[in-house]
Amino acid sequence: MPPSRPSALVLAASLLLTAPVAAAEPAEAQTAPIAVTPAAQQAKARSDGFPVPPVVGLVRTGDGDRYAEAHVRRTLADAGVTRVVATDGDDPRTPVTIYLGDGDAALDGLGVKNADGLPPEGYVLAAGHSGGHKVIVLDGADADGTYYAALSLRQLVEHRQGADRMPGVEVRDWPAMRYRGSIEGFYGTPWSHQDRLDHLNYLGGHKMNTYEYAPKDDPYHRDRWREPYPPDKLAQLGELIARARENHVDFTFALSPGLSICYTSPQDVQALLAKFEAVYALGGRSFTIPMDDIDAGRWNCEGDRARYGSPGGAGAGRAQSEVINAAQAWATAKGDVAPLQMVPTEYYDASESPYKKALREVLDQKVVVHWTGMGVVPATITKAQAARARQVFGHEILVWDNYPVNDYNPGRLHLADYAGREPGLSEHLAGIVSNPMNQAAVSEIALYSFADFGWNDRVYDAEASWLRALDEVASGSEEVVSALRDVADLSSYDGTVHHEQAPVLAAEVEEFWPAWRAGKPTTLRARAERLLAAPAVIAAGVKDQAFLDEARSWLDATGLWAKAVLKALDVLDAVRSGDGAAAVGARRDALDLVTAAKAIRDARAPHSTTFPRVGDGVLDRFVTQALGELDRWIGVVAGRAAASSTLGTYADNTPDRMVDGDPGTFYWSNAAPGAGDAVTVDLGATTPIGDVAVLMGKPSSPDDFIHAGVLEYSADGVAWTRLATGTTAEVKATAPDGTRARYVRYRATGGNDYWLVVREFQVTAVGDDVTRLTVSGGPAGANPRAAADGDLGTAWTASGAPAAGDALQVTLSRQRLIDRVIVVGTGEAEVQVRTAGQWQPVGGLTGPYTELDVADVTADAIRLAWTAGSAAPKITEIVPRYGDVPAAVLSVDPAALDTAAGEEATLTLSATSTRAAAVTGTLSVKGPAGWKLPADREATLPRGGELNVPVAFTPTGSGTLEISFAGVTAAVAVKAHRAVAEANLAKGRPVTASSVEGGTAFAAGNAVDGDLATRWSSGYADAEWLTVDLGSAVDVGKVVLRWEAAYGKAYRLESSADGRTWAPLAVVADGDGGVDEVWIDQANSTRHLRVQGVERALTWGYSLWEVEVHTVAKA
């Protein structure tokens, strides 16, 4: 269907031009902004608009056709016209006359140039007063142009109270690209016949002219390409061709023979042409031969080997070219067939190769070559890349753009904006077509922007176009647009063009946690309620039933996840109010909702293999974190480590699989890790650790590992200590004796070209200072260990009613001072603790959550003594809370600080709760005499929570800062250095290097150009160096080195007055990459500064994004 008239939002986001023309109109007819989408090449408003009367004259001339006329008549009917009179333009009964096709005399009267000289598909649309008559002229450069003028007319008529109005306008418009539209080229469930018919309507209604029929799972297109289509399928193709013609869309039939063709077989060539002949007989006049996704390294017959030699490379290029040339000769002989298109086997780059050279030299120059950009699904396509592709293929380039296609991303809809394509690509491309999703109607959100970009890429605005697309789906309803934006945010991630998961929601979640911990108001509940309402708002407001049917699984999942978030917020509210029973109930509800969301399956392959991914990495992580707050509030300590990742997840290969003890399962990311990305294991409590092993990669993906990383551990997740570095798929280390950690992570120190697979992340606990719980007793039931495994997701369930004397007992591995006993579960029992060998009752179970104050008794066991004959009990967890632990665990970030003497510095104190009650105390900061320190303050640490407090102070020299709270003290070593100036003296200075990595542009000057996107890289040797000439001798106080992945494990900073004789300034023996701040405490006179390598961290050389040099500040 044609696009609806623009709403207020569309008008605001469209191309608005209001330049008046000379003729004046009565005061009641003011000029209005012109809104034509896609944005017109040239448009200006006139002041001689007029109301649309009930009777209008129609003059058929020139390049009009019945399809354009049908659009004009629908527009007039919607504007209140009751009668259209065919006329020659002089009928006095028609106060307004429309010229369809041309209308030179009327245009002359308006002072408007006609469409002569416009590119194909161009048009002139003008309206105003001409020789005393009110006229509208639709003058097309050809029939397509007239058709597009009719579409623009529909957008321009203004609906007003009483009578609609035609503004005075002058539009000269034409497409920037020759091919604009879509290629149905995805794997998985193909579109239905009705999908395709509707899609052709959509393309034509949005000034797109290309539909390429290439469904990978149509057997007659690919696997059984030699076989004729059955009559029913051929009839459907004929219907599609007819519908395409009605919409001024070129139906391009694709045949993909590459899996089995014998290039030298005349029979195979004739089979291909016979298939084309059958489609030609139906009216098809455009054809393509895809040779993508095939094994070009083998021949399908010996004749090919005899003619072309070894398979692949130049031989494959020649063989394909000769077959396609035969098809192009057939097309040329027909006389009315468009130039043939082909998809090369090497469609994904623009580097020179024997294969591309063969295409350039052998393939008929008329053939148009498809190209996906620099990659199968590139994040960006630039003009320079397109120009290079045109050069290396030697043919016109048509971009097959793999967006919003989702066959490679099971469970995902791609609903973000169409971004990353440089305006001006039309200078180098013949066109750009979208490979859409398995969901045809939902793909229209992206297709709208393809229409905008293909028509006028120079003024393309991705976000504005995306908003217009949503507005069209919403039929102009602001409420529905808002709901669509919320849902689209949850489906914005694709891992290629868009790397952020639910960016709007993620920002709100990030703001939530510090506000919640500080007891401040938050907005997340309102956001979750909006998400909960969104599916119903969309279902009621979106008129396209196909859109609703295709999106249903994701809309249903959105509603369930929204409810899960609301229940997770209920958990947090209950924790804050101390209501354990309500918290446990809300937790159960949240998990049930998550289970329901993950049980949904869409009917279309490949999305039928997994659940709909909506806001994953944000919604699920929030629910997990919120439930983790309950775990801490109750005091459970899981027996098995929990794993997490900063990256997303491919399919169902979730992070928990790296700690499941099974090397046959694995975590698999859905993107390549960048510097700072990490996989982390949470041991649940601070524990002595020994051996650590990170086993990455798998036989079918051997390169899917972090190629440069650092293994680190932490007690609090804030301050991290390096354990080892790694560059291989398996990284192993042994922690020094006495090492205690709760968290262990493997962090990437540089970029990677591959995704990440982690088969196992093993951390071995040592020693026995952890109190271990052993479950025994009865009655008999499944999994008794689950009653004290530190996991609220497991439970022991009795197989029947308790008998007299039955009791479930939890024995501690050593005596502890017990403050409280918490029981999560149901049953009728007396709770007892064993002290000095005697059982002492402390209370009874009171419901699904029981918490008993046992008044700090020393005990070594807890038991639930059941009431005989009562209902079969089910116990999720028995938790002893200890009174012999510090009131809090303190940590400081950073754990050690280098700063400048006399300048204010800030540390962050993190206090973590260890008791089953809130702790209020005095936060005190002490340091050496003369330091400026903050005053003591009162603070409250909530039960199970954290307290993060910035601590600002000013040191006058080096020393130890002590921060105390609730009887616990954390000490920080502060090293105060000479204060330095802010200016970077190295920027733009002359620089020399021992070498530059061969075959690269990573020159020495990149290290001092002030651009963190450029770098210097050396040759592959330890003794490489980089020298900066500072221009004059200065006292250097600090040097900052910003390393790429290839960092210096050991290096020296050296000083020289003449660039020949060098003295040491600093020695670094334990570099760990990232950013090194090296302070120089001794006075020096340095003109030349050298970074002298001693030992590389990796097999490559040294690589620096930037070197910064700061002088000692003047007093």
Automatic annotation (TrEMBL):
PROSITE patterns per record: FA58C_3, GH84
Stored Pfam families: F5_F8_type_C (PF00754), Glyco_hydro_20b (PF02838), NAGidase (PF07555)
Keywords: Glycosidase, Hydrolase, Signal
Residue intervals of the GH84 domain: 178-458
Xref: Gene3D superfamilies: Chitobiase/beta-hexosaminidase domain 2-like, Galactose-binding domain-like, Glycosidases, Hyaluronidase post-catalytic domain-like
GO molecular-function terms, A-Z: hexosaminidase activity
Signal peptide from the UniProt entry: 1-23
All copies of domain F5/8 type C, residue ranges: 622-766, 973-1112
SUPFAM superfamilies the UniProt entry points to: (Trans)glycosidases, beta-N-acetylhexosaminidase-like domain, Galactose-binding domain-like, Hyaluronidase post-catalytic domain-like
Active-site positions on this chain: D293 (proton donor)
Superkingdom, natural source: Bacteria
Chain segments annotated as coiled-coil in the UniProt record: none
Keyword Hydrolase: yes
Family recorded in the similarity comment: Belongs to the glycosyl hydrolase 84 family.
Entry-linked PANTHER family: O-GLCNACASE, PROTEIN O-GLCNACASE
Protein name: Hyaluronoglucosaminidase
Species of provenance: Nonomuraea pusilla
